[in-house]
Amino acid sequence: MTRIAFTEFQADPAAHLDRLGADRTMLIVTRPHHEPVAILPLSKLNGLRETLHLLRSPANGERLLRSIAELDAGQGKERGISP
Fold first, then answer.
1. What is the 3-state secondary structure of the chain?
2. Short-list 22, 16, 21, 23, CA closest to 37
3. What is the pLDDT of residues 16-62, one digit of tens each?
4. Residues 2, 9: contact at Cβ < 8 Å?
5. Which domain holds residue 10?
6. Residue 79 resides in a domain
7. Which string of b and e fits 37-74 if b means at least 16 CB within 10 Å?
8. Statement to judge: residues 35 and 8 lie in one domain
9. pTM of this prediction?
């Protein structure tokens, strides 16, 4: 995550946006007397929104975390995708 002043972003916005797309990171743009603004690739935003949706239910969150722990412990099973 990079933090820059608005004037630096304003000098060459295309270069900063290109870097965000290539690095898939977040850019924080600051201005005096204003709240900083985050700029991130749409795919990252969509991923965050999906994660929030999946973790909204406590039971589903526990199930997902348990599954991740099983995979980390090498207990995962590879399966095909059902049509």
1. CEEEEHHHHHHCHHHHHHHHHHHCCCEEEECCCCCCEEECCHHHHHHHHHHHHHHCCHHHHHHHHHHHHHHHCCCCCCCCCCC
2. 16
3. 999 998 988 999 999 999 999 999 999 999 999 998 998 899 999 89
4. no
5. 2-40
6. no
7. eebbbeeeeeeeeeeeeeeeeeeeeeeeeeeeeeeeee
8. yes
9. 0.69
Instruction: Specify whether 8 is located in the same domain as 34.
Output: yes
- Cross-strand bridge partners of residue 28: 3, 38
Q: How many CB atoms lie within 10 A of CB 29?
A: 20
Tokens at 57, concatenated: 């239910």
Classify the phi-psi angles of 72: left when phi > 0, otherwise alpha if psi is within -120 to 50, otherwise beta.
Answer: alpha
Asked whether residue 23 is domain-assigned, the answer is yes
Residue 81 lies in a domain: no
